[in-house]
Every structure is written in structure tokens, then in C-alpha cells.
Write a structure and sequence with these properties.
The chain is of the alpha+beta class and 323 residues long. The chain contains 7 helices and 11 strands. It has helices at 119-140, 147-175, 181-209, 213-216, 218-237, 242-268, 293-317, and strands at 5-10, 16-22, 27-30, 37-38, 49-53, 59-63, 70-72, 75-77, 79-82, 88-90, 93-99. The longest helix is centred in the middle third of the chain and has 29 residues, at 147-175.
Length: 323
């Protein structure tokens, strides 16, 4: 290890907060002004520790009898060999020492999309959130038009978006370095927009082509979209952990879908969210051929037979005789 040496103070997430250059050994650490590296930490001793080279030229740290000691991987150490990746804690300060010839990691591919953050994506996200809120009220509105209901929905939607985006921006600032509120608002608004498009598109396709599964299992698509939203939030905070976040979000989506299926089974005895198509549109939008009355009555008779069998089974299970 060759001089100069660089003492790096680290944040809780491992990011470098400050680098201090020391040109020779030994390196004295402490709160006193006569140290080579001064620790602005009330829990550090005036002369806390010293770093010097051993007989083989390796850096070794020695505690100088401080009250709180030097902590490495949760254990107090009086003597500790130091390489470039050894992280220690003195008081409430986390640091490491690296020589000038320490091999740094290769350059990372920039996946942060710096061009898509700030005011513009934030405004786009707010517009998408507002459109989702108004559209939701419009779909369920069965009364005469009242502007106040739509204004209230718009205010509540934007307020919820600001709370959600602000929480992620706080996490981004805490674990990332920048807040990126605009990016998080855009992610949230985009997720609501995708959910809206799927709801409309799946309802039309289900009615037109008799694809009832698109609406009967729509909650699973909402879960997938929510997992995708969480993935983009997380990768905005820590863009270099893409694979880990993808696996985590996929596992959460599978867990959510599984719990939804179990809940449907326990509540209604069916895996689907509803036993019938929830949206009925104009007959002119139908593409699939209509069923005849005879086909309909045949399906009714099948249902009657199933209902009679189920009723008979319940009577037997309760200990009664057949009707």
C-alpha cells in the first residue's frame, strides 16, 4: 500500500460523504486538534486510534484505550488489519482507509435517466393522476352532473399523489442523494394511467369477444402493475440494484395474486373476482356470435343440476334426509 492515503467517512447506506488525504504514516484519529484526521464526533476520544504499517507493510489500526473503542462488524477490536474494504465505526462515525493504489470498481452504466426528471415529468405525472381521479368519478357517477364532485376527486387525487411521491422522494433523498420528486410523481401517474387503459381495454375486449377472464381476474393485472410501479420507484432510489428489486417485486406480485385467489375461494367458492362479466356495453360492440335460446336453456339446466347436487350434499352433511 502506497501513500497518499485517503480516509473516507461513509453514510449509513455506504455512500462516501467525505474524503481526507493523508500523505504519510502513522495516521492518528481522534477528536483532538493534534490528530491527522479529526473526528467531529462527541463519542470519539481526543486520541482514539492510530493506523500504521506492520512489518509486512500492511495497514493495522490500534485502539489507544478509548472508552467506546473501535467497532468492526459489530465487535469491538483493539487491533485490526486494514485493507481498502475494511469498514470501522468510531463513535457514531463510519469510515475506511484506502491507499492511492487501491483498485476502484469499473465504471457503471448510467441507468438513472437524468434527462427525465424535474418539473416536466412531475407535471405529466400530476396530469395523469388528475385524469385518473376524474375518470374514476365519471365511471361511477349515476347522478346529475355536479362540478364539485369532480373538483373534490381532483383535489383528493392530486393530494394522494403528492403524499405518495413525497414519501418516495424522501426515501430517495435519504438513500440516494437526490429527491427526484418529479420522477416519482411520473411513475405513480403512469401506473394509474396503465390501470385505466387496462380497465377500459379489457372491458371492451371481454364484452366484444366473450373473454370474461379479462374482467374476472382483473385484480391480478392490477397487482402486476403495482409491482411494476414499485420496481421503478426502487430503481430510481438505487439504480444499481435492478436484478434484486426485480426478483423482490415479482415475488410480491406472486404473493399478492396467491392471497387474492385464496380470498376469493374462501369468500365465494370461486377463484375469479366475480362470477360474471362486470361490464355490459352496447350490443353493437359485440363481435362474438350470439348464443341461441336453446344453448342458453341448456346452460341453465346444467346450472340447475349443479345446484340440486350441491343442495343434496349439504343436506347429507347436516345429517338430514334427502328431500
Amino acid at each position: 500500500m502506497s501513500a497518499p492515503y485517503f480516509i473516507e467517512t461513509l453514510a449509513r447506506n455506504g455512500d462516501v460523504l467525505h474524503r481526507h488525504q493523508v500523505n504519510s504514516l502513522p495516521i492518528r484519529l481522534g477528536r483532538g486538534y493534534d490528530n491527522d484526521f479529526i473526528l467531529d464526533d462527541a463519542f470519539a476520544a481526543p486520541r482514539h486510534a492510530v493506523i500504521d504499517a506492520d512489518d509486512e507493510g500492511r495497514l493495522v489500526l490500534r485502539d489507544l484505550g478509548s472508552k467506546n473503542g473501535v467497532v468492526h462488524r459489530g465487535k469491538r477490536r483493539n487491533i485490526l488489519p486494514m485493507d481498502g474494504d475494511t469498514v470501522i465505526r468510531i463513535g457514531h462515525t463510519t469510515l475506511r482507509v484506502r491507499p492511492a493504489d487501491f483498485a476502484v470498481a469499473p465504471e457503471l452504466l448510467d441507468r438513472t435517466r437524468h434527462g427525465w426528471e424535474g418539473v416536466l415529468p412531475g407535471l405529466v405525472g400530476m396530469v395523469l393522476i388528475g385524469m385518473f381521479a376524474i375518470f374514476t368519478v365519471w365511471l361511477s357517477d349515476t347522478q346529475s352532473f355536479q362540478l364539485v364532485r369532480y373538483l373534490q376527486a381532483l383535489a383528493y387525487g392530486i393530494g394522494a399523489g403528492l403524499v405518495w411521491g413525497g414519501a418516495w422522494a424522501f426515501a430517495n433523498r435519504l438513500f440516494g442523494r437526490q429527491a427526484r420528486l418529479g420522477r416519482h410523481l411520473f411513475i405513480f401517474g403512469s401506473a394509474l394511467g396503465v390501470i385505466t387503459l387496462y380497465k377500459v381495454g379489457s372491458s371492451v375486449a371481454a364484452y366484444a369477444f366473450s373473454l370474461e377472464a379479462l374482467t374476472r381476474y382483473s385484480s391480478h393485472m392490477a397487482i402486476i402493475i403495482a409491482a411494476g410501479m414499485m420496481f421503478y420507484h426502487l430503481t430510481t432510489v438505487k439504480p444499481h440494484n435492478t436484478r434484486r428489486f426485480a426478483i423482490t417485486c415479482a415475488a410480491l406480485a406472486l404473493l399478492g395474486s396467491g392471497l387474492t385467489l385464496l380470498s376469493n375461494e374462501q369468500r365465494t367458492g370461486r377463484l375469479a373476482d366475480s362470477p360474471y362479466m362486470s361490464v355490459v356495453l352496447q350490443p353493437s360492440m359485440r363481435v362474438s356470435p350470439d348464443h341461441t335460446v336453446d344453448e342458453f336453456m341448456a346452460d341453465v339446466n346444467k346450472l340447475k343440476a349443479q345446484a340440486d347436487a350441491e343442495r343434496t350434499r349439504k343436506v347429507k352433511d347436516d345429517g338430514g334426509g334427502e328431500e
